Please model this.
Amino acid sequence: MTLTTRLERIPPAEVRLAEDTAALLQAMGIVVVHLFGPPGSGKTSLILRTVESLTGKVRPAVVVGALSSQAEPSPLDNLDLPSVQVNTGGQPCLNANMLREALEKLPLADVDLVLVEEIGTLTIPVEHSLGENLRVVVASLPQGEDCPSRYPEPFAHADAIVLNMVDLQPYLGFDRARFQQAVRRLNPQTPIFELSCRTGEGLETWWDWLLEEARGRAS
Amino acid sequence: MTLTTRLERIPPAEVRLAEDTAALLQAMGIVVVHLFGPPGSGKTSLILRTVESLTGKVRPAVVVGALSSQAEPSPLDNLDLPSVQVNTGGQPCLNANMLREALEKLPLADVDLVLVEEIGTLTIPVEHSLGENLRVVVASLPQGEDCPSRYPEPFAHADAIVLNMVDLQPYLGFDRARFQQAVRRLNPQTPIFELSCRTGEGLETWWDWLLEEARGRAS
Model:
């Protein structure tokens, strides 16, 4: 499926709103990072570990997607920073309007970096932007080495890929080279960050990259 | 969202076809078990461990959902039993027509039990049947204790829930009681099978239940 046929399926108002959001963010010097990944790959943990490291260097905020308002509170709701939960009303992912409304609930004048936690799924179209600056897929060892080839679209369009839970390697016998090859077939250039939010291994490289990207895009 | 409003969104032909499939299966004494779950929760492993145990007691077959025909071959393609792969063409789940077409490719006269591996996701509506007899959610410890409340619909409508990877408990510190409470709030009666496809722990109870359900429904 080509980019064109996909884009044709998105309502024009959504595309226009996404462009408008992108322009707004650029004008304000704010970088929005959209994190995708299956349930349990560690999106929430990664955001927690990332904001605790980046606070003081940038002014982060968080947007959290949820399928319903009856979900248990997220650990991201109680951070000491601006945070908004978006209820998609059962829809499997955020759209441009939901992201925009969430951003407008944040004190944007006091924010440099917004981390957006998408609903946990890999079966959504992601090649169109909602206005965000970076799209990051968070996978983890339990999903298996062939996860990218089974759920290609998010991996093909990611600006970075995080492979979480590398501390489970001894128990899962995960073949990292095979995972990397599967990613490379879809997305030859994208950086892959192998890390563990539990042990902290590999987090620093991810933080450095994110900070550099954020600064590069905001300037 | 009520059952009625959800059902109204399903095209009538899909509903009718699902009813027709259910009648066909009943007439032939075949039981179809539809397995849902996020990527990496172990649907494939559970099917592998289940068919290897049940062969000789029933005549199993397998239907495997895939998002695209470019996915790597599944270990389920090479089993010594009837197997069909369904390509959903990017759709996040099977529909009644895809299931029916897949079933018709199987030698149904020689089959008692069909295990259907759904695309890996928890963000799909599942309260309508495709004609299958049982719906089973396969979750695993890495998804966390609050997975049911974050992705309620599949858990609310499951005839059984499998909690896989209990062997990872020492490394993940998973609170099984909290998981069970989250399930019970959505689905008070459904059996929960805690097991590990890796170590084999707990599999026998699952096999016994499945075999009994299959025999009860086929007779």
